[in-house]
Design a protein that fits this description.
This protein is an alpha+beta fold. The protein is built from 3 helices and 4 strands, in the order βαβααββ.
Length: 82
């Protein structure tokens, strides 16, 4: 699993992270945010990013004021996305 601490990062940094991802099918990504940042950006924006980059948005976890978002790379060779 690849983990990134995204607390305090600006939206352009997050977009460039997704744009430069190099994941294999089934590989997972976790992103750590402050709860307020996730509320500001909205869960829908992360779901949209996941779809654009052929990732599955998994169930997030919340621990105190921190939220960890999880994604899994889809196998585009074995799906309708290809």
């Amino acid at each position: 699993m690849i983990c990134y601490d995204c607390r305090g990062k600006d939206p352009f940094w997050i977009l460039s992270l997704f744009a430069n991802l190099s994941l294999e099918a089934g590989e997972r990504l976790s992103l750590l945010f402050e709860e307020s940042e996730v509320l500001r950006y909205g869960y829908a924006s992360f779901i949209d990013l996941a779809q654009l980059h052929f990732l599955r948005f998994l169930t997030p976890t919340c621990q105190g004021k921190e939220v960890t978002l999880f994604f899994e790379k889809l196998d585009t060779a074995a799906s309708f996305h290809n």
